[in-house]
Here is the input.
Amino acid sequence: KMDDDDDIPQLSSHTLAALQEFYLEQQQREGMKTSQGFNQYSIGSIEEDWQLSQFWYSDETASCLAKEAVQAAGKGGRIACVSAPSVYQKLKEQDGEDFAVCILEYDRRFSVYGEEFIFYDYNHPLDLPENLLPHSFDIVIADPPYLSEECLQKTAETIKYLTKGKILLCTGAVMEEQAAKHLGVKMCKFIPKHSRNLANEFRCYVNYASGLD
Here is the structure.
């Protein structure tokens, strides 16, 4: 009787190596840490999911917003990134800096960031963990996923709950009136850019004297 194992096709070592490489690349792309010390915080380490209306900022814009957040938060400050993962990633690249940061995000792939990740669904703006105390962040940076008043209004509830006062909002230029109405923020001169060009004109809005003008 023949050995049953003979029927199972064996992969050549070359194919196996190629397959392993493919899986490794996939792991890296999904933002997991690998032994090569892949930088899990670099922008694009987790790819955009357009179905979740995700659009990452360009490296330059993320750096600029992260720098602004650190200055606005002050020494030892606390920063919350609401649906703004590319700013969170930039902040984390500045390891050892004197600030704390949390990411509130619907996309559970960001749970690779551990305790700083808080699952967030703007449809339930105040459904937040108990340890996230009201008015416990020096600045909140938010980028609501959709350009709709409903989305802005609900995200605004979260922002107002979290912030001690300072707000940095990134959304479409068309949302200027609603942004003023719901959050009291004004448009800055600084124009955020995305890694892929968006059809909608995007702007930043603040309610304090920022370095973005």
Remarks:
- The two ends are 81 Å apart (CA to CA).
- The chain has a mean pLDDT of 84.
- Helices lie at 13-29, 59-73, 85-93, 149-162, 176-183.
- Residues 62 and 211 are 14 Å apart (CA to CA).
